Amino acid sequence: MENITVKIDKINDISESYRQFYKDTSDSTGTILVHHGKAKYPGKYVKDYSEIKLYEKTPEAEKILKEKAAEIFKKYNLNSLLAVHNIGTIYKNDPILFLAVEAKDRETGFKGMRELLEFIKSEKFLGLEEIK
User: Fold this and answer.
1) Phi and psi at residue 27, in whole multiples of 5°?
2) What is the DSSP string of 95-115?
3) From CA 99, how far away is CA 95, in angstroms rounded?
4) Molecular function (GO) terms listed (predicted)?
């Protein structure tokens, strides 16, 4: 069975998300990669922003992300994959994205993580607006 968790939701506790992810690791796991994207300051579009709005550009955003995650999971034969993207209003240093990939080796882990990260950062189905 595929061990894939994908959510577009408020991120409350990244450390708890990682603990849950780690407790179910497989004996065949050689690599666990984690990406914690956060709201950097100054901003990407508005240098001196006061807040950031994270939003879904389409009602199918979570479905699109789940489908891509499943494709990457199979393509790289990953053991598990977790993707949680924050939504709503956030502030500097708040988490935007938490990804974790469990793989049999570094090469497939890094490739899978990178492909999923670039897909998410394309901003085709999720948007980011920095507010002055």
Assistant:
1) -60, -25
2) EEEEEEEEESSHHHHHHHHHH
3) 11
4) molybdopterin synthase activity
Q: Using one digit for the tens of pLDDT, what is the confidence trace for 88-120?
A: 999 999 999 999 999 999 999 999 999 999 999
H-only helix segments in 1-132: 14-23, 61-75, 106-121
Please name each of the domains of the chain with its CATH number: 3-131 (3.90.1170.40)
Output the CA–CA distances (angstroms, integers) from residue 82 to 45, 46, 47, 51, 85, in the order listed: 28, 30, 31, 26, 10
Beta bridge partners of 95: 38
Threshold 0.70, pTM exceeds: yes
Closest residue by Cα to residue 53 from 22, 83, 96, 108:
96
pLDDT at 37: 95
What's the one-letter identity of residue 92? Answer: K
CB 93 within 8 A of CB 41: yes
Instruction: Assess whether pLDDT exceeds 90 at residue 86.
Output: yes
